[in-house]
Amino acid sequence: MIPFTKAHANGNDFLILDESLANRRHPALAQRLCARTTGIGADGIEFIDRRHRSGELFLRLFNADGSEAELSGNGTRCVAAFLAHTEHRTETILGTHGGPRHCRVLSNSGSTWQIETGMGIPRVMQRSLAFTDLPDGATEIDGAMINVGNPHFVVFTDTEDFSAHGLPWQQLGARIATDPRFPHGTNVEFVQMLAPDRIAFRVFERGCGPTTSSGTGTCASAAAAIVFRGAGRSLTALAEGGAQQVVWRTAGAEMQLTGPAELLCQGHIFDPPAAAQDVSL
């Protein structure tokens, strides 16, 4: 039996497991346990490594399709809420492949925790992608490449349904996310400017597809809005799952992300049979 905790941040849901239980089966466990109808259901699994060589708690994130990602802002916040609940940690530093993330609990109400996370310094670059078959006849998609510990491509749109270049955002997001110009894939955001201090966005996540929210996607969208659309350095970002707050005081400062994380349940699931285990890592 494998013990797990399930949590979500603005609907972006994760399972939290101890790294010691993985036994080199991370992709297989992610694919099985994250399945919506035959597993527990989640966008990914956060494995907590308590014996990492760095000496700090270290997170390994595996997406629902079994691929490993550098980090998740929302997943990190879910783990911080889990640690606040189980170990009474009001501040913690969590190592990730995208760099350490400092989480600080601001408040707690029942099973929901409001948490501020330092998300590093965004790297921002304007970029256009050439395409030959866009429905609106355009030959390029103008956007921005943003790195906040993991890769993002941000497209601005003023359509009510977040479509761009004549395509639904989900369809165009899937094309960009898997485009060979991004050999390791990329997350994709479609951003509307609502006001100087308010944006809305939709996100197609590498490894799991459309999600209701994304912590790093919130940061990437905010960074692009600040740099290329003159947004204020303190703003609210609205995703389908709700709002998060972003503060980026100067270009050289660490971006701060604040939002909720809710612990949903704990339980055990039967261990996969040996024939289904992937030991390729």
The residue fraction in helices comes out at 10-25%
CATH superfamily of the largest domain: Diaminopimelate Epimerase, Chain A, domain 1
> Number of DSSP helices?
4
* SSE run: EEHEEEHEEEEEEHEEEHEEE
Mean pLDDT: 94
- Poorly predicted runs of 5 or more residues: none
- CATH class category of the largest domain: Alpha Beta
Structural class, from helix and strand content? alpha+beta
CATH topology of the largest domain: Diaminopimelate Epimerase, Chain A, domain 1
Specify the CATH architecture of the largest domain: Roll
User: What is the total number of structural domains?
Assistant: 2
Q: Tell me how many strands there are.
A: 17
Distance from first to last alpha carbon: 22 Å
Described by the principal axes of the CA atoms, the overall outline is globular
C-alpha Rg (nearest Å):
18 Å
Percent of sequence in beta strands: 35-45%
Largest sheet: 17 strands, mixed
